[in-house]
Amino acid sequence: SLVRKPTMPELARDEQQNSAPARASAHAAEATDGKPRSRWSSHTTFLLASIGSAIGFGNVWRFPMMAYSYGGGAFMLPYLIALFFAAIPMVVLEFALGQRLQRGHVALVAHIAPRWEGLGWATVVGTFLSAQYYQTLLAYCLVYLVNAFRDPQPWAVEEAARSLSESSSSLDGAEASSGLQPGSGEAGGETEADAALAAVRSFWREEVLQVSSGVDETGGLVGPLCGWYALVWAVVCLGACDGASSIGALNKLLMPMPFAVLAAFFARAVTLPGAGAGIRTLFSPDFAAIWSPSIWVAAVSQLFFGVSAGLGTLTTYASFSPPSTPVGRSAIIVSLSNSAFSLFAGGTVFGFLGFISHTTGEPLESLVQSGPALAFQVFPIAMGLMPLPQLWAALFFLMLLNLGISSAVSMTSPLTTALCERLGTTARRVAPPLHLLGFVSGLIYVSRAGTYWLTLSDHFVPMFLTIVVGLSQCLLVSLAYGARRLLESLPPEDQRLAPWWAFCWQWLLPATLSLLLLAQVIHEGSSPFGGFPGWALAVGWVYSLGPLLLVPLFYCAHARAHGGRRGGGVMGAVRAGLELGAVRARARTSSSAVPEVSRVALASNEMSRVAPPVDEDLFSVVVLTESERPGAAPQSEPDHAKGSNEMADG
Q1: Exposed/middle/buried for 453, CB within 10 Å: 0-12, 13-18, 19+?
Q2: Cα distance between residue 144 and residue 394, in whole Å
Q3: What is the 3-state secondary structure (H, E, C) of 329-394?
Q4: For 524-535, what is each residue's pLDDT tens digit?
Q5: Residues 404/258, Cβ–Cβ less than 8 Å
Q6: Bond preceding residue 414 cis, omega within 30 of 0
């Protein structure tokens, strides 16, 4: 279609309407459909909520265990590289999408690419399923918290913790007050330190877990644990009922405490004999492991799961912020806070592990166990080394509850918000039945085989779901929405690094995540995880990738609802881009001389069938009008161009 050149007043009007603040405000109004959207009370509240989502139970036990398992200090190099080249760009992307479109995660994906709405639902459903096993860890904390006030505490034999404390203050080689040296036995017996370690393990396995012989023996529910599990779900439901207001208030109350409590434990750990050796074990590099793809997958998945990237949480939280809020600085603060707390917790855990190894004579390698046992076995012994052990036990498990509840609320909120937006109702109506369903369907985790299922879930979900979702988000933004379009909506403060963010979203992250995902799938096929039977591993795969089955279901449903017409989504944008390339090629070859050009919109019926809002620049092309061709006679405007003019003006 040939259109007239825009006049100067029209250009000024378009420039004003297309400015970043105007576009952001327009999208915000469009997203909420005129309805007031829940807001954070301040930017600090948003940061505290995002940090609360990032810093959780996994920082205390999952990060130290993974760091040690993947080569200690060798793990730190991929971890730090992934922090700056993967985690922070991904957090910026999710913050920018949430603030720009002012929608929950599912509505956001549906707005960008309607046929790929299933990807949004897969993300929030997978995150909700992860919350089911995450709540189990909080139930463990409640069991320990209730028993923390008993004297003596049930996870320690009488006087064993005191004996450990006395031996820690004695000089190396000197006899402890009990007359036994650390790591030695009397007449083949065990020391009080050995007895304390055995008591801690016995309480964990026999009293808390009541563990069965294997994953194939469910053994029924653990009654007390089931009750605490129900209480955790009730508290999380209350936190999710009022959206941003309740989440913000919860994090203002809970977030400062964990840093203070962990600092006290770290200060005690570094004064113990053997602590230095334990910390060196964590950070001593095994560079032979750095060439394994598994260590890079582990680093990326730990960071993504740690900062809540690829879970739909950050986009949901960012949608409660005003569109003009800077995102780059917030993303850096959240990511660095998560990593700093992980390193802090890792140093504390391995400081106590080094002391226990020094005192009992047991190799440190045998003390490091997978799963949450690392936290629930190391810290109970550490509490006996503190004055007023009942007080410190209560503070420690309250700290874990603080970390866990804020993260658990962030894991159920995306699905709650998505259902509220889809059904047009409030969180107070959606949250109770949704959380009740989560409790009932998650009872397998509080059975006698629950610890096996928790280990499987914790391996597969962070390792695969977060990476697949992160990769999909990069592709959607690059191919369907437009990286430049998203970046132009950011405040001026974020424009300085816009080229870097665009490079990460369009090239670096898609290429890196694709290669790592392929390498890990090959590794899982050749080295099955944890000695589990094949059927259990199959369940783990279904648990992590099963929600992705929603993607083809929604795609086919959308295609059928629209009569099979070419619609939006990634492939629609790609096809439109290819057609645009052909149009541009014809425009370039139509004339070698270009005295003056005008940018016009292609308004053919075929192009108008592309449903989603694709980048405006995708459908702009520089062409010559007939009157501008060298030697062409002036022509009157054809009738069909008048309709195009009206469309272009609109």
Answers
A1: buried
A2: 8
A3: HHHHHHHHHHHHHHHHHHHHHHHHHHHHHHHHCCCHHHHCCCCCHHHHHHHHHHHCCCCCHHHHHH
A4: 888 888 788 989
A5: no
A6: no
Closest by CA to 272, choosing from 198, 197, 344, 348, is: 348
Q: Model-level pTM?
A: 0.74
pLDDT in tens, 25-42: 444 444 444 455 678 778
Q: Dihedral through CA 457, CA 459, CA 460, CA 462, nearest 10?
A: 100
Please provide residue 179's backbone torsions phi and psi, each rounded to the nearest 5 degrees: 90, 5
Query: How far is it, in rounded angstroms, from Cα 182 to Cα 272?
Result: 13
CB 116 within 8 A of CB 109: yes
The CA distance from 200 to 385, in Å, is: 14
Task: Look at residue 94 in the predicted model and tell me its pLDDT.
Answer: 93
Which phi and psi angles does 601 have, rounded to 5°? -95, 135
**Nearest of 14, 374, 357 to residue 200 by alpha carbon:** 374
Q: What is the DSSP string of 591-614?
A: -S--S--EEEE---HHHHT--S--
pLDDT at 183: 41
Residues with pLDDT less than 70, the chain: 1-37, 156-194, 242-256, 368-371, 563-650
C-alpha dihedral over 599, 605, 606, 607, to 10 degrees? 30
Q: What pairs with residue 221 in β-bridges?
A: 447
Helix/strand/coil for 641: helix
